[in-house]
Amino acid sequence: MPVDPRPLAGQIALVTGASRGIGAAIAARLHAAGAELVLAARSRAALEGLAAQYSAAGAPAHALELDVGEPASLAAAVAALPGRIAARPVSILVNNAGIALSAPFERSGSGPQGDLFERHMAVNFHGPRRLAAALLPGLLAARGALVNVASSAGLEGYAYVSAYCASKHALVGWTRALAAELGPKGLRIGAVCPHYVESPLLEASIANVRAKTGQSEAEARAFFARQNPGQRLLTPAEVAEAVFDLCVSGRGGRILELDGARRIERGASP
């Protein structure tokens, strides 16, 4: 039986953090599968060109200014959304936007970067939670998909990023709880948990390591590659493909760990 090259045709997919890196790769993959896109990020200007390119190449795409860590911004974006998509429901939500800041635990509650636990939970957990709650009626009516981009830090712990780990563990736990509660109602819910990925977040980590150790960029990049079980950095396209699989899968509650060597199915419970 031939495979449908556009299985998401007619569906509207909202992707947060869509202006670069993993988010941009996810948007490209879903658009290639036929989805109409809502590209969300803090700077709408950074999205306008992307939206125009996608619209010219296939299904429409729309830019939406959204800072997921700010409740007022999220409320304004949700209020503006019906005008962008003619009041049709979003059927796919990909919560990709996130932050990753590092500090020893004793300096994570207060310091030059503020309370890292509050900041990480606001962006990495409460933002996705609030956005999903706002869009839930449409997602359920469409029997759509909710996919959270988490991290291997949502499955295990790492030194000097306790706030980041806490927020990603919260995101994965919430994903599992929603799968148990809303999966029976037809909503496909899952999470992708990649190890280190070639992305703007990794570039920031590389710069931090170089500043502290004096390593070259190549040495710092190799250090992070060695931390992945597959001994290489993942690409944004690999993460995007896993997200796409969760969007079209008939089975919810899937937690996919990507380690650079294989894709590990974690399932809905540990």
What this model shows, in words?
The longest helix has 26 residues, at 116-141. The chain starts with 11 loop residues before the first strand and ends in a 5-residue tail after the last strand. Strands 3-2-1-4-5-6-7-8 form an 8-stranded mixed β-sheet, sandwiched between helices. The protein is α/β, with parallel strands linked by helices. The protein has helices spanning 21-32, 45-57, 71-84, 116-141, 162-182, 200-213, 217-227, 236-248; strands at residues 12-16, 36-41, 61-65, 92-95, 145-149, 188-194, 254-258, 263-265. The model has no long low-confidence stretch (mean pLDDT 94). The protein has 8 helices and 8 strands. It has a single domain, classed as NAD(P)-binding Rossmann-like Domain (Rossmann fold).
